[in-house]
């Protein structure tokens, strides 16, 4: 179900958390609120959930004005970074909790919990306590508990932030598959660019309480609205007065042309399948990213003189001429 946030403002004392924010979140999509720490993304999520109230503005969920509705009236599922599990209850009872307080029939609760534990691959752990689960398993339990009451909107506040990199990667793959199965409107907060680019249908970039850009991962990465979005959504380097992606630079050892900048290789670093070449050119250190095969075909070493240019197929970036 769609969410409309219209002209929302929020202050905490002198600190402006949200500055006239308007966002339209499409029904059935997985939307990421992405930005640096303190940028306002969690505040926006909590206002949508009803856990914080806006100083001004409006929130609509399914076309209903939810601005002054309490959280329990919004039919929203919320998952926190640190699980918020009931430590004395089993996994089954944790997932069943929301249904029990709504006094649903016992047979319905049992069937719904079984269905969800199967969905999140925790059926074999139904009788365990949360402390007997791994971090990734506890987060899957928290997602099942949020889904138990069949919310129209699922909100996740940095759900994988407390987990190590390998588990985070596994869980975000799993979240994407889960969302495709249950098809609930999902909004998640993250400061991890790779997570947002990999998982989300749409990304809302928030910085210093303002929306910088809204669009698909491809739109934001390839056509950033400004320097902040470009720098935040991936590696950048400067060539002359142009901000570009390191993998969008072409490097060669032939004669210079009008489009080339001449420089000297100062450092070569291999990171997995990538080779990063740093070139001192025109009082700048320019970073060029190459594949291993591209690097080997060049045959360059530290100290070599090279030519660097922006690849001709690269689009104009943030209003700069192509």
From TrEMBL:
It is an enzyme of class 7 (translocase). GO terms for molecular function: ABC-type quaternary ammonium compound transporting activity; ABC-type sulfate transporter activity; ATP binding; ATP hydrolysis activity. Its EC number is 7.6.2.9. Pfam families: ABC_tran (PF00005), TOBE_3 (PF12857). GO terms for cellular component: ATP-binding cassette (ABC) transporter complex. The keyword Metal-binding does not apply. Coiled coil: none annotated. Residues 3-233 form the ABC transporter domain. Keywords: ATP-binding, Cell membrane, Membrane, Nucleotide-binding, Sulfate transport, Translocase, Transport. PANTHER family: SPERMIDINE/PUTRESCINE IMPORT ATP-BINDING PROTEIN POTA (PTHR42781), SPERMIDINE_PUTRESCINE IMPORT ATP-BINDING PROTEIN POTA (PTHR42781:SF4). This is ABC-type quaternary amine transporter.
